[in-house]
Amino acid sequence: FQMWEVMGNPSPFWLIEQGAMDGRLLVDIFLEIKRSFPEFYQVARGRIIEPFSTCREVQQKTVEASGLENKIEWAPSVGTA
Known about the structure:
globular, 3 strands
């Protein structure tokens, strides 16, 4: 939230995670942003860098269970993000 303010409130504001394991960290961050900073939540977007489809499937289940599927997307590598 502080970095978003320092940067002049850009929209969208991307949160990128590489090596997301089951996706829980990014989900937890988004749920806290939604609870504590609703104006920031509106412009925040997430991207998980994940080259492996089996890991991506686990992450997608975590994201879908949290109701954040419209906030988080995937890319197979940093260069395609």
